[in-house]
Every structure is written in C-alpha cells, then in structure tokens.
Amino acid sequence: MKIANILILLISFGLFQTSANAIVDQCKPSALIQIGSGIAVSENDVLAGSLIAIGSPVRIDGIIKGNVIAFGDSIAVNNEVAKDIIVLGGSVNVSANARVLGAIMCIGGDAVIEPGAKVSGPVRTGGAGIYTAGQLFAALNPFFSKLHKEFTRETFKIINLLLIVGKVIFWSLLFFVGILLVLIVPKNIKNIEKTIFRKPIFLFLIGLFMLIVTGLLSLFLFFTLAGILIIPFLVCFVLFFTFLGAILTIKRILEFFLNRLNIYSVVDIVMFLIAFIFLCIFFNFKYLEIIGIPIMAFTGIVGLGGIIYTGFGYRRSQNL
To answer: For 173-230, how does the pLDDT look when each residue is reduced to its tens digit (9 = 90+)?
Structure first.
C-alpha cells in the first residue's frame, strides 16, 4: 500500500503542477473573473483588462478596455467597451450614447441596440429556437467562416483560457473521483470490470446508443433558451462516465495481461493510476492521437456501456 500512496502523491503533484503552468501561460491578458454575483462597473471606473462573468449580471457604467464575456446572464452597457462582447445564454443591452468598439455575439439570447448607441463591429445573435434546422445549418457556415476575422485575438485567448481551466478541472475530477470510487465501492468497480471483459461488443452497442441519444437530446436542447445552459452539463456528465469507463476498461485489460504473467498482487488503486496514466498519454500527447483517440473511443464506449448495464456496478452480470 506504500507504493500506492507514493504514486498518488506523485501523480497529484504532477497534475496540479501541469495545471498551474498551463493556466499561468494562458493568463497573460489581465481579466476580472466573477462567478455567481452581480458586477457593477461604476461611472468613474476603468478596467484595463477583460471581464468574464459566469452566472452574474453585468452593468457597465464605466469603461472596459478589454472584452466582456458572460455565461448565463445579461450585460447592460451604459458607457464604453473597447473590444468585443460575447454572451452565451443571456442578453445584451447597449443604451443610448454607449459605445462598443468591437463586435457583439449573443448565443441563446437577444442583443438590443438603442438609438444613439454605437457598435463598431457586427452584431450577431443565434440559437434559442429562432432557427429551423435548415436555417441553422445555412447560418452556421458563413457565421463560423467570418468569426475568426471579426473577433480580436484577445477574445480567443480568453476563450482558450476557459477551455484550459475546464480541461484541468475535468481531469482532476476524473482522477480524484475515480480514486474515491475504487476505495469506497470496490465491489461495484469489480462488477463493472467483469462485465466489460465478458461481452465488450454488446456493451459497446449500449454505450454507443447512449452517446447517440445524448447527441440528439443536445441538438434538441440547442433550440431552447434553457437548453443552451443545460447542454454543457449534460455533455460533461456523459463524457465523464465515458472517460471513467475507458480507465476501467484499460485497467481490466492490464490486469488480464498481468494475470497471464502470474502477477496477482497489484493493488487496485495502483492499477487504476496506471490505467489513468495510459489514458492521459494516449489522449493528450499529439503524436499519439492517431492511435490514442480510437483506443480511447472504443474503451470509453465499452466502459460507458458497462456502467449503464450494471447500474454502476450494483447489478451483477452473471448471465452475460
């Protein structure tokens, strides 16, 4: 068990060290990030960087020198924004005499530009049921083809930062939740692994069906205002269990080969960590993506099917 503890410590340190370095490298543009409470930039305030709001209404009476990005709430501009405004699942209101020197993109809401307001760039809104399926696909092509030209590099840096933070959180949760599951419900994990190894093709079809249903449901939710906010949580939830399934599948394959070598004494946590490392290597190293992504896709879908079929291990699969 000492080896397992040492491995846990080393991998935890490595994960957070890598995460910290990645975030520091991407955080060069200064940005104010607010989660869950309202933001008011008063008339005499000047924010030199960008503003990112998550679930927070934003009122701008002062000056923002960077971009304004909001998720799940509204933005009211009463003075000046020097760059772009991006809103997902909310609305934008630019009052009379206010200025936006960049572009406005509003997905899942409306953009209201009052008479007398000045917006230098294009104003684009979409989603939230305003398109039919045919209109949607017709609109996406020119929209995305012009997106890179219409929005500044600073905006994409901030979006990239958010994606990196999300990736760090996802992999950290996968690591720690997986370890907890191996410790708390080891019998459930074993039931899933045994099921995976007995009929992988059957479980692959179950997992594939689940992914197809998730994709269709996400497409349906895309046409609703509330759905714009639900889709990320739904997709992340399914992806989490797909990645967890991939780890359990790889773990079971490794145990099979070790058993062939008459090695039976490896601790479950150690095997989980080794499988986690394999998945990280195959999925995150660009030179291994050609073989890594197909391996992850197959093992993940099989593992997802095993998790669903066994009810997360509460049901034994003796009949398989």
So the answer is: 888 888 888 888 888 888 888 888 888 889 999 999 998 988 888 777 766 655 666 7
Report d(CA 160, CA 217) in Å as an integer. 26
Number of C-alpha atoms within 13 angstroms, CB side, residue 305?
24
Integer CA distances (angstroms), 201 to 53, 208, 252, 306, in order: 44, 10, 15, 11
- Helix-, strand-, coil-residue percentages of the chain, each rounded to 5: 60, 15, 25
Tokens 């543009």, located at residue:
29
Q: 49-65: per-residue pLDDT in tens?
A: 788 887 778 899 999 88
Query: CA torsion angle for 71, 76, 79, 85 (degrees, to 10)?
Result: 30
Whole-number Å distance between alpha carbons of 192 and 181: 12
| Closest of 274, 223, 229, 226 to residue 248, by C-alpha | 274
Look at the pTM and tell me if it is higher than 0.90. Answer: no
Residue 302 tokens, joined? 């099989």
Query: Do strands 63-64 and 75-77 pair parallel, antiparallel, or not at all (unpaired)?
Result: unpaired
Q: Which of 131, 122, 176, 182 is nearest to 152 (CA)?
A: 122
Task: Find the length of the chain.
Answer: 320
Any idea what the Cα angle at residue 239 is, between residues 237 and 241, rounded to 5°? 75
CA 195 to centroid of chain Cα atoms: 29
Domains of the chain, by residue range, sit at: 29-130, 167-309
Average pLDDT, the chain: 74
Residue 20's pLDDT is: 44
